[in-house]
Amino acid sequence: MTDIRALSYFVAQIENLDAWQRYAEDVLGMMTSPAPGGGLYVKMDERPYRMLIVEGPSAGYVASGWELSGERAFMALLARLRDADVAVELGDAALCEQRGVQAVAIVHDPAGNRHELTWGHRSDCQPFVSPQGVPRFLTGDMGLGHTVLPAPCFDECRAFYRDLLGFEISDVFNFKPAPDVPPVRIHFLHCANPRHHSLAIAEYDVPSKCVHVMVEVENMTEVGRAHDRVAAHGVPLSATLGQHLNDRMTSFYMKTPSGFDLEYGCGGLQVDWNEHSAFEFTRVSVWGHDFSVGRQAAAQGEAQ
Asked: Sorting pLDDT into bands at 50, 70 and 90, what band is 304?
């Protein structure tokens, strides 16, 4: 089992931070504050942030932050990566200050996705008080949620995550976009916490460099209230309400200001990995999750 404990944070980029601040506060129901060295912290639990939004020339997903158990595990993982000739860049004091950690190492997977390996997160013990009355998000030892990343060079990426970072497969989905084309592989991966998956990799590329991220609330009422806020603020819906087959999450998908999707759900499966058997599932959802609404919205936007 990997020494990576959870998805600690992610970093996204946008030209104007105001759009993300409004989205985080008014739609997601999260708190915001200025980040050291520039940028916007988005807070969803007792930690100072779980999302860091920075300004840049284009919108997109920048990095996934992975938390290790401590310095010994951090150094052991860096040694394993260097032994495999993976380039490792240690973050300077300013980067550690902005990320709020004791140390950070930057690596890239074979598809170019940036990962920040960290240990020793900073805590100010300040409570989370949602501006929209969300009681809490399910985080803690399970991290902020999960991220789904593009992996067009799929076999190389799978080996990187499995053999070097130590992730294990939760289950797999072989998506058939048409009967006469090869399946598109999507693998769901877990680390050292009970969340069904903290990472998934998909055998295609996307312009935003992230397929989606997921955040979880404690009940369907909060999912419904968020769904109402999406409509009230005109946020594009990427998929309708539904329940996934593999992790049992009841959720919907919406577009973030940085161009990737965000899944907002509840009831995600928590797994005893000693009892779990990895499997292949053959449909995305038990019910709902109509992704055509997102494609239709995108087509309308291009037409305009």
From this structure: very low
Q: What is the pLDDT of residue 299?
A: 63
Report the residue count for the chain.
Answer: 304
| Exposure class string for 8-32: b at 16+ Cβ within 10 A, else e | bbbbbbbeebeebbebbbebbbbbb
In whole angstroms, what is the distance from residue 42 CA to residue 63 CA? 15
| Strand extents, DSSP E, 77-211 | 89-90, 103-108, 114-119, 146-150, 168-175, 184-190, 199-202
Which 3 state secondary structure label does DSSP give 136? coil
Please answer whether residues 218 and 266 qualify as being in contact, where contact means their C-beta atoms are separated by less than 8 angstroms.
yes
pLDDT of residue 177: 80
CA-to-CA distance for 254 and 262, rounded, in angstroms?
5
Structure tokens at 44: 């969803």
Q: Is the pLDDT higher at 301 or at 4?
A: 4
- What percent of the chain has pLDDT above 70? 97
For 136, phi then psi, to 5°, come to -170, 160
Helix (H, G, I), strand (E, B) or coil at 166: coil
Contact 87, 114 (CB under 8 A): no
* pLDDT tens, position by position, 108-123: 999 999 999 999 999 9
First-to-last alpha carbon distance for the chain, in angstroms, is 49
Distance (Å, whole) CA 96 – CA 98:
6
CA–CA separation, 58 vs 182, rounded Å? 33
